[in-house]
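#struct-pred

JT: dropping the chains for the assembly here, can someone run the whole complex?
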Amino acid sequence: MAGEDELKLLGTWASPWVSRVKLALHLKGLSYEYVEQDLDNKSDLLLTSNPVHKKVPVLIHNGKPICESVVILEYIDEAYGTTGPSLLPTDPYERAIARFWVDYIDQKLVIPWKVAFTADGEEEKTEGIKQMLAVVQTLEGALKECSKGKPFFGGDSVGYVDIALGGLLAFLQGTEELCGTKPFDIANTPLLLAWVERFTALDAAKVALPDVTKLVEFAKTKRAQMALSIKK
Amino acid sequence: KSIDPTNSTAMAGEKGLVLLDFWVSPFGQRCRIALAEKGLPYEYVEENLMAGKSDRLLRSNPIHKKIPVLLHDGRPVNESLIILNYLDDAFPDTPSLLPSDPYQRAQARFWADYVDKKVYDCGTRLWKLKGEPHAQARADMVEILKNLDGALGDKAFFGGHAFGFVDAAFAPFTSWFHSYEKYGEFSVAEVAPKIAAWAKRCGERESVAKSLYSPDKIYEFIGVLKKMHGVE
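RK: done, full complex below.
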């Protein structure tokens, strides 16, 4: 195979969406150049690579940009189909189920989490927590169905849904401190608790996920800054 | 309550393709267009959403309780773009909606996702809101159409020579253009001339012509929605 294969990832250290891409790249055994972005002062490279959303992550493969974490994950699986493990299942129906759960996580988990994290009023916060926990409960059921007794959503090995949820893990682990509630507990979500332990033990997770303490501190600072700027 | 998305016991014995849909839904229309483009026969089931949700719909999509739902031999696939992906995966001997090159596929997924994130919600803001928020909605819609215009470029379809994934995803909204123009007081032909020409081209395809309702009908439907939401 002629020529060099160049992968560059534009990201921010705290972003769970960027973590997803890092996880996928590590699991596939792909080397890449990581370029930390300053979102308050966006680089020319970021703006030309993602003119529509101006966001991270952006994966640049041999100079060509791919944007949106979910699109990037599918791209990595397809462009490197013969490298490392497959991220998506091969069966069409199982692929549809995996895509459904990733879409569910993106549609349903993030918003109530943010409400629980940033809400001023007690009522609003309680509602956010309630909704978030309901979503987590549904994901417990999803894990049961998808794993069929095996360690991951993807079965024996880490798959698309594992990566999509895994990218959020540092935030999930910081949820008690940030939102005032544990997202997982032994009574309601025993499978997810076990999954978290398994996932965080992976080499890919150790490299791709930010340090929880650092993340919690960062998130708290950002929240305080936002609160201040709203009051102005 | 089982959240088993396969729900195989409930609908065992049903063979073939069934689409649970709502006549005017652009998300449902995408699926109709895709099925027609692929020459796949299916049973169309109109869900009268105005009169509540059928048991079948609630069993097939217990999590979102929305149409469209594609049932394939009794097993449900939910979310319109997931359905489109599924049709490509499950029926590889039919014309592909997605291109074969991984980078082109990523571009197609990105723009279909963009349509999903932006068009319907912005359109809703256009007919629902007044004053400053309405002006913002108008500016947003113009930007959305300009971005899509740029993405289309000089190609006949988003997919290139062939009608594809993004075309199927966005074509249903062409019947909403007239309403967007009236509520937004702008002209699609002026702000996004390539999109306007593309819309015409799409309308000439049997799959699209048979799936869409007239712009006047859509305008009338929006009038109904406005009444429902108590908008003047």
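JT: nice. The CA atoms of residues 64 and 74 of chain A lie 15 Å apart. The first helix of chain A runs from residue 16 to 27.
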